[in-house]
C-alpha cells in the first residue's frame, strides 16, 4: 500500500508569495532527498492556491518528513500566510498519482481543515474551489537517486 498525502494552501496575499516560495523550495529539496518518498507533484492553481500531492512508502516516512527539517520549520508560518489550509491522507494499492478530480472530491469529504487565525469564509464553510484544468501548473517531484558507498562520482 502507498500513502497519499495532500496539502492545499491558499495565501492571503501575493505579498507573502516570495517567503512562501523560498520555504517551498527548501521543503522540496528535503522531500526529494528523504527516505520513503515515492513521488509527487506541486500544483499552482488560481487565486493563490497551492497543492502538494506526495506518495509515501508508509505513514512513518511521511511523518518523519513532516516533523523534521525545512518542513517543520515552515509549518508555523501557515498561520501568517494562509487563510485556507487543509490536509488529507489515504492509502491506495499502487503508486500512481491521483487526478485532481479525485483529490478535490476526497478533500471536500475527508479533508482536515487546519485551525487558522484569519480563515476565509470558504475555509470556515469547508468549501474547496475546483482547480482550473486537470493539473493547473504542475511540477513533478521525483525521489533523488542516492549514490551508493561503493560507487565513484565519475560513474554517475
UniProtKB/TrEMBL annotation:
Taxonomy, superkingdom: Bacteria
Organism: Brunnivagina elsteri CCALA 953
Stated name of the protein: DUF3291 domain-containing protein
InterPro entries: Dimeric_a/b-barrel
Region listing for Disordered, in residue ranges: 133-156
